Amino acid sequence: MSRSSYFRNLIAAPLILMFCWPAVSQAAADDPSQRLLQMLDYVGVDYPPTVENGQVVDPVEYAEMEEFSGEIINLLRKMPEREGKPVLLANAAQIQAGIAERVGGQDISRLTQALKEVLISNYNIVVGPKQLPNMAGVQALYESHCASCHGIMGYGDGPLAKGMEPPPGDFHDMSRQYTRSIYDLYNTITLGVPETPMASYTHLSDEQRWALAMMLSRYSVSDEQVTRGKTLWQQGVLRNHFNELPNLTGTSYAMADEWAQIDGLASVKGSAVLAYLRNHPEELEISNHAALDTSIAMLATSVEYAREGDRKAAHSAALSAYLDGFELAEPSLVVVDKQLKLAIEKEMINFRETTRHGSVEQLEAIQESLVDLLNEAKQTLNTTGMSSGAAFMGSFIILLREGVEAILVLAAIMAALIKTGRREAMKYIHIGWISAVVLGVITWWVADNLIQVSGASREVTEGFAALLAAAILVYVGFWLHNASHSKRWKKFVEHKVDSAMEGGTLWVLATVAFIAVYREMFETVLFYQAMWVQIDSGSERSFLLGIIAALALLVVISVLVYKVGVKLPIRQFFQVNAILLFLLAVIFTGQGIAALQEAGLVSTSLLNFPRIELLGVYPTAQSLGLQLLVLILGAGLLMYQKKAN
């Protein structure tokens, strides 16, 4: 294999894996709930200026409102059946009738706002990001994508705005922004507005769209309102309402004022508090465990699909409940209550398999059990928090666990090269692992800034990478064991090793180094992303110290493995190395199947068998069965080679 073809393969492999990552999720465009909420927001904001004292003052815009009110009813009919759906349809019909009768704008705004709130509640619609978006660079993002129409300051006076119908929105116009939440802005950025110049911006990452929405939501309030809101917030006003990120992103100024009135306060105080929090979302005591709320919501969605008879959609929602929800909270929970984490994982597996073959009643029973366990996890995490000690242990254990396997592979291969007198070939191994580290860093940046890596994509990538690594390790292990049986070692070194090294074997070894390191980097990066947003304020240093400590221990382990390997007699060294790589292949096989099971690509049959994650042992018939086959294959190859020699 030529150097150029190797690099083509080296680059192509991760790119092929990354095709599993949707650069942008198109689900939003097909999700009637998001489109429905957008239509309600659009009607609530744009209807009031079209009528005055029962008379139409903007016929074109009014006709659009009539069309959209009918579309709201059509979208509602497409929503899954729920107990309150007839009431929602009746409310939508009331909006349509009100528009036909040309009632006042405030009446329609109140009706659309009320319908949005009930819709979000009844269908467990997630109206917030999983974490606060990174606002760095958002102004430049706005200027490059939005300012040409909306103007550099957001007044709707950009160079392309002249003659545009309808005109670009003015984000400073409180009469239009009063009933609009951050989520509404995010939704419009995501979906665009049909039959208008407002295009969909799904080519931006989810975090970028949330960052834009959060920035735009701040334009309609003054500095005085923000200052007044800070004082009220410090006095405890509305603290019981704003306890999680979705409460902030899903709340409009109109809703905040209603909450203030319910609490017996002047309504303007609600707007002031919300103005302050939109400008300073870090002040929220945001739950570290929104991922668990996502799990609970997706479990409910899965059950609803099962009731409707859509088993495929039910299974997909069940996968999302684990991969896009609970799994992100695992690093925190395993530190404080490992048994609870294992109990939830087991019930999640039962739930997923029941969506395929079980009854709705069985599914509901497991859902109830899971919700109790997830709420217990929330309580446990809220009580203990991601303290400094937990942050240290979490980051330490994750890196140590992921790094040991890669270290063993690298140390074994490097020692083999030293033993064969091929120190100059070490550069190939360095190319492999350094490329993996660089790509791992790029992966971190891409996952943080450009795309949102879904849980299923993450597990598919990890699963196939692990199985590919296992296959290559079996090959390399067989090659090493073959070397150990050479009767004339000097001749072997001079001829067989040299010819093998001059051929494709070195690049195979470099590929092993790359895959071994990259698959661990990939998983570590995504787990660290999840952990970083969950640690308590002030625990960041402990988190970083955990990483440093793990790196130091990994260096010690690598040196020990290397030193021991080099000191072994040549025959024993190759035998031990071959067995080590075969065992690592067994471990990778178990981990690969487990990842594909979590992604829903492989079915899961639980067995009464110990679970040893460090060794890739999982109590399922599929993973244990394939591991047994790899063991038999390895043993068979070793016996065959021994007999042949």
- Gap between N and C termini: 29 Å
User: How are strands sequenced across the largest beta sheet?
Assistant: 1-2
Proportion of residues in extended strands: under 5%
How is the CATH topology of the largest domain named? Answer: Growth Hormone, Chain: A
Number of individual domains: 5
Would you identify the CATH architecture of the largest domain? Up-down Bundle
Radius of gyration (Å) = 29 Å
Question: Which stretches are poorly predicted, pLDDT < 50 over at least 5 residues?
Answer: 1-29, 484-500
* Overall geometric form: elongated
Rounded average pLDDT: 79
Largest sheet, strands/sense/barrel: 2 strands, antiparallel
Helix content: over 70%
What does this structure look like?
There is one protein chain. The chain has 645 residues and is an all-alpha fold. It folds into five domains: 26-125; 131-220, Cytochrome c-like domain (Cytochrome Bc1 Complex, Chain D, domain 2, Orthogonal Bundle), CATH 1.10.760.10; 221-283, no CATH class; 290-383; 387-644, Growth Hormone, Chain: A. Helices cover 72% and strands 1% of the residues. The chain has helices spanning 3-18, 27-30, 32-46, 59-78, 85-100, 105-122, 138-145, 147-150, 174-177, 182-191, 206-216, 223-234, 245-249, 253-262, 267-279, 290-307, 311-336, 338-357, 360-384, 388-419, 426-449, 455-484, 489-502, 505-532, 540-567, 570-598, 621-644; strands at 51-52, 55-56. A two-stranded antiparallel sheet has the order 1-2. β1 and β2 form a beta hairpin. The protein is elongated. The two termini are 29 Å apart.
